[in-house]
Amino acid sequence: MAQIIDGKAVSAKVKEQVRIEAEILKQKGIEIGLAVVIVGDNPASRVYVNNKKKACAEVGFNSYEYALPEETTEAELLELVEKLNNDGKVNGILVQLPLPKQINENAIINAIRPEKDVDAFHPENVGHIMIGDFSFLPCTPAGVMELIAETGVDVCGKNCVVIGRSNIVGKPMAMLLLHKNGTVTICHSRTKNLAEICSQADILVAAVGKAGFVTPDMVKEGAVVIDVGMNRNSEGKLCGDVDYAACFDKAGYITPVPGGVGPMTIAMLMRNTLTAAKIKNNILE
Ligand code: NAP
């Protein structure tokens, strides 16, 4: 039977550390600010933005919300990003994805100053992650690493399988596991023998976007199973990529959805924003 990795509890610990450090900076006259930009009225994006603002309040950051209409042009959004790049009160800029189709997401990501890119999506930060010399970690994969650390399982030398190769989750996830000396395999939609590869994983990370994708035959006895997926099932209930109930007895450790990776992503965003403020004030240890 698996031990549940409690993402809510681990994220609360991370946020508490951030809150304490933010408080110390405040006493030195340094206030920390995160700008959150949302374009359009995607209900899921609205929930994420509200959660990020709530987390800012919890850790003592100022949050500045910019809610723009669905028909916003790329030029208008670029103008706002430039304004935020030059705003001394703003340490981190987060533009909630996805953006409406008239806006090129890459153009926006590339316009955010790397030192304010708390999502770590800018090519400069992606390059730093590749080399292993980074200030900002991509929030979701960084959150996953914290959850794995919580199990006490050492990544070094382990067979790690990541299902999914997106720029925001799969690829950086694989890179972070590699930096910890895991033997990493990345699977995707063209992978052959996917179930067999997964079934050899000591650490299995699912970032597919398909409810119930990971079934018990894909899980090695005692494996650490991390579910990044956030899907809605036929009843509209939030669920992950892993068939949680079916895999529970076989896994050694497993993350629930909700209450697993999701809260960690936001906690790591808070940590990145704190890091951005430290970099700006030359107090990074
Ligand atoms: P994405 O860009 O759609 O990528 C999905 C990946 O899964 C792709 O690499 C795709 O392969 C692969 N895939 C799809 N079908 C597959 C199949 N049948 N077999 C093997 N691989 C398959 O999604 P994403 O942005 O990485 O997000 C993945 C999931 O994580 C989503 O549910 C998303 O909502 C969730 N998410 C959660 C958080 C969080 O905070 N918890 C944060 C970000 C994302 P190809 O590249 O070959 O198409």
What structural keywords apply?
single chain, 285 residues, alpha/beta, Rossmann fold, 3-stranded parallel beta sheet, binds NADP nicotinamide-adenine-dinucleotide phosphate
Rg over alpha carbons: 19 Å
Mean pLDDT: 97
Any idea of the CATH class of the largest domain? Alpha Beta
Total helical elements: 10
Helix content: 40-55%
How large is the share of residues in beta strands?
15-25%
Word description of this protein:
With 285 residues, this protein is of the alpha/beta class. Helix content is 41%, strand content 15%. The strands form three sheets. Strands 1-11-8-7-5-6 form a six-stranded parallel beta sheet. The longest helix is centred in the N-terminal third of the chain and has 21 residues, at 7-27. Bound molecules: NADP nicotinamide-adenine-dinucleotide phosphate (NAP). Residues 140, 163-166, 168-170, 187-191, 194, 207-210, 228-231, 261-262, 265 line the site of NADP nicotinamide-adenine-dinucleotide phosphate.
